[in-house]
Please model this.
Amino acid sequence: MAMNFLLQVGRLSIGVSDRHQMSGANKPLLAVDDISFTIRAGEIVGIVGESGCGKTLTALSIPALLPEGVSRVSGSIVFDGVDLGALSLRELTTRRGKDISMIFQEPMSSLNPLLRVGRQIAESLELHGDTERTYVRQKILDIMRQVELPDPVKIATMYPHQLSGGMRQRVMIALAIVCGPRLLIADEPTTALDVTIQAQILRLLRRINRELGVAILFISHDLALLSHICDRMLVMYAGKIVEEGTASDLFTVPVHEYTQGLIGSIPDRSRKGMALVNIPGKVPSLEELGGIRDGCPFAPRCYSALETCLTHFPKATTLNAQHRVHCVHADRARYG
Ligand SMILES: Nc1ncnc2c1ncn2[C@@H]1O[C@H](COP(=O)(O)OP(=O)(O)OP(=O)(O)O)[C@@H](O)[C@H]1O
Ligand SMILES: [Mg+2]
Model:
């Protein structure tokens, strides 16, 4: 069964070291709290949630790129049957780019401003052992065509700052896929782009997924956007996955009140970081979360919360093969 999955994240928790530890409670602040999910080869899985819910830290933990002061405190990350936590830094570095690669909202964060586009792609290939000059040269042009960059020969000689935002994003995607990864992690890759370019990049990622069979973990605060590209979505709130399912599961039978809130807020999706229009309140800080650590983190904002929700985070209720929810009201779900 294990071989069925490309990625298996099991009971993952990510802690943030508390620099201003006020209370005597020595528990680490948990930014991600006991989440589990899987990705199959070639599948596109989305993570959706408001700002601060732990999407980026979840993504960064997979290739072990968590920032300073943030660490995996428990859980396992198994890629293609191999426990990544058991690998040396050197082995991990080899896997980055080759097996797992990432793209971000801001392409300049992963591009070297001092290197011409073609050279950057060449370095990525060389890093993974491809050094034969004619091969590298051909591969650079092929990959630039694959990400639909016009006039690859010319663009290869340009510097990142000479390109438009959309073209830079294509270069970043080229860098991410040039070594043939099996998992591409895309963290808000289109958020900074205008809608037309956004749609083009989404189409490109979908095409790359189909043609190369690369699985994608696609992170966004935008449920509507995710529903167009993902096979399955994980709804994350304050460090927990509260519901997961296909787009059709979540849109037709949303069970968790947070999922309902995200759906109800769709017309306002462009306002990143703003509160949900139909659910007052906001994502708690990690300090605030500590106070309700064993309960459902959404309980303070939930109209249907019961007493028990403040102290017990419910186990998953399975509604169908894809659709699972952590909510005491799971019996409300009505298919049909
Ligand atoms: N380097 C860090 N040091 C300390 N706390 C951090 C760090 N990075 C993130 N956090 C905290 O961890 C929590 C989750 O952050 P994360 O960046 O994963 O959220 P996100 O869902 O990606 O949000 P956004 O939609 O704004 O990108 C937040 O409370 C955030 O303040
Ligand atoms: Mg983020």
